[in-house]
Amino acid sequence: MHGLAPLASKAVVSAFDLSSFKTVCDFGGGSGNLAYEMSRTYPSMSVKVLELPPVVEVSNHFKPDDAGKLDVEFLAGDFFVDELPEADMYVFSMVFHNWHDDNISRLLQKVHSALKPGGAILIAESLYNDEKTGPVKTAQRCMLMLALCEGKERSAREYRLLLEKNGFSDFKARYTDGLHDVILAKAGESNKGKKGC
């Protein structure tokens, strides 16, 4: 993942204007490449990376040269179990394709409950077209996910249905020329007036 992240991070960060989000949490962010790129692109953004303890323990080995100028912090935890850090936007990059729809719904419900009004979720995955006839890169990844874990690659339409089912709206998808396509959605009306965790 660390080897692939530099090839995808710029496209993910530039797919949408994220300047309105001041606090971000990247779930399963690995070595932090995407988090560092977000902080680099949006200097007023504070980014936390929530990762399992063994990953956090080695994260210092992967710091970029300009890490001292960037507002990135690593937190040890399990997003299925632990309370989520407070943030304006939660990021899942190459995470949801690991899981069955039921586990994704569990996470989406948890994220929706933690978001303040106006909060958002950013998802970076390799997306099928709506007919699921391609692209080839997505089909190849889907075969890998089916072989290694319970997950699969999905179309933008499938993600929209999952997100809407779990309270999200204002769905937008961007197909990029890179490794990851990008989805942005906001917490639905049921979150208005709700305090964050």
Describe the protein:
This protein is α/β, with parallel strands linked by helices and 197 residues long. It has a single domain, classed as Rossmann fold (3-Layer(aba) Sandwich). The protein has 6 helices and 7 strands; from the N terminus they run H-E-H-E-H-E-E-H-E-H-H-E-E. It has helices spanning 5-14, 33-41, 53-58, 101-114, 136-148, 156-165; strands spanning 23-27, 46-51, 72-76, 89-93, 120-125, 168-174, 181-187. Strand 1, helix 2 and strand 2 (46-51) form a beta-alpha-beta unit. Helix 1 (5-14) runs parallel beside helix 2 (33-41). The longest helix is centred in the middle third of the chain and has 14 residues, at 101-114.
Number of helices: 6
Which class of secondary structure composition applies to the elements? alpha/beta
Give me the side-by-side strand order of the main sheet. Answer: 3-2-1-4-5-7-6
| Largest sheet features | 7 strands, mixed
What is the strand tally? 7
| Number of individual domains | 1
CATH architecture group name: 3-Layer(aba) Sandwich
Kindly identify the CATH topology.
Rossmann fold
Kindly provide the radius of gyration, computed on alpha-carbon positions and rounded to a whole number of angstroms: 16 Å
**Overall pLDDT score:** 85
**Global shape:** globular
CATH C-level class is Alpha Beta
